[in-house]
Amino acid sequence: ANIMVSGLQRFFNPGAELVLSCKSGYSPVSGPRTIVCSDRGEWTKTRLMCIPKNCPYPDPLDNGDIYYEDTVYQSTVNYTCNEGYILHGASTIVCQANGTWSASLPECKPVMCDLPPIPEFGKIIFDNSISGNTTKYGIRVTYECRPPYALVGNKRGECTASGSWTEPPECQMVSCPPPPPIENGYMSISLQTEFDYMETVKYGCNGNYVIDGGYEIVCQETGEWSLQPACMGKIRGLIKGRILYKGRKIWIEDLNSKVLHKEIVSVYCMDKVRKCGYAVPAQCLNGQLKIPECFEGKAYFMTTQENQR
Fold first, then answer.
1. Taking a C-beta distance cutoff of 8 angstroms, is the pair 44, 84 a contact?
2. What torsion do the CA atoms of 243, 244, 250, 255 make, to the nearest 10 degrees?
């Protein structure tokens, strides 16, 4: 296979010699490379083999993939690029008879987009620094609007594989109605019928109440206010016995301050088997403190409203 014989004819006399060679794309291995017609009318034997030439292993393709099964003569290599990249050069190369590839390594170049459109009353912040009037595939941006305009649409944009930008958002005027009043508290508010996007209003509580949540609300891009806080009541406890408050064991009579909303007060229950006391926590919630059932002493807690009376 793949061996060529020169000088072929119909008959040969004893002593005739033929030269063997390999077809193009194949290399000789072993020998001899000639055969001779013997006196018995037979050709001498040869171990000559012609094996296909090898091409060098193909280099890896940046931002792409290569596919091949072998690198011998007539083998092929196929190239593809990752999403967002375009192949520049041959997509298929062949190992030639001289042991070289039919073309050089192609290149995967990124898809390019024009600069993204800037929304009216807005701006664009690039994730990476850019130069010129084009951007590469995968470059991302963040959109922002100048108050009182709010962003409507996607806050992020990207140069896509099609060479275009994702749909840009719009900057629209946003306002909020006057904020609701807070019970048992007050707010810093001017006499106006509507508030622009990102404007804030601050809340405070009357003396016997504490604020639960933030002190400030903001007009959001939806035209609604952020979560409003609440003014929660304090309590003053009257328990016969000792309590655990802020890490200290004290007699309730020595409690000079009011217990605030969400603070923990522990009372002592009796372990009748071991004949010793153990602390059981209870939390003040809006002026109310639920005493654990295990507490056998006398307990009474005065709410903020009763305290005012």
1. no
2. -80
CATH C-level class of 3-52: mainly beta
Both tokens of residue 6? 């020169």
Average pLDDT, the chain: 86
- The CA–CA distances, whole Å, from 152 to 145, 173, 223, 258, 288 equal 9, 10, 12, 47, 44
3-state secondary structure 27-70: EEECCCCEEEECCCCCECCCCCEEEECECCCCCCCCCEEEECCC
Query: Of 280, 279, 296, 287, nearest to 237 (Cα)?
Result: 287
Domain boundaries defined on the chain: 3-52, 64-110, 114-173, 175-232, 234-308
3-state secondary structure of 7: coil
> CATH second-level architecture of 64-110?
Ribbon (2.10)
pLDDT digits (tens, 9 = 90+) for 264-274: 878 778 777 78
Distances (CA, A) of 262 to 103, 244, 283, 289: 76, 15, 6, 10
Q: Output the CA angle 82-87-91, nearest 5 degrees.
A: 105
The token duo for 45 is: 């034997």
Question: pLDDT tens-digit profile of 60-95?
Answer: 999 999 999 999 999 999 999 999 999 999 999 999
Tokens representing 259?
A: 């217990």
CATH H-level superfamily of 114-173: Complement Module, domain 1 (2.10.70.10)
Q: Is the pTM of this model over 0.90?
A: no
**Polymer length of the chain:** 309
DSSP letter (8 states) at residue 304: H
Which amino acid is located at 168 in the chain? P
| Confidence check: pLDDT of 284 > 90 | no
Instruction: Tell me if residue 289 falls in helix, strand or coil.
Output: strand
Closest CA to 135 of 115, 118, 117: 115
**Two structure tokens written together for 29:** 């291995």
The better pLDDT of the pair 29, 265 is held by 29
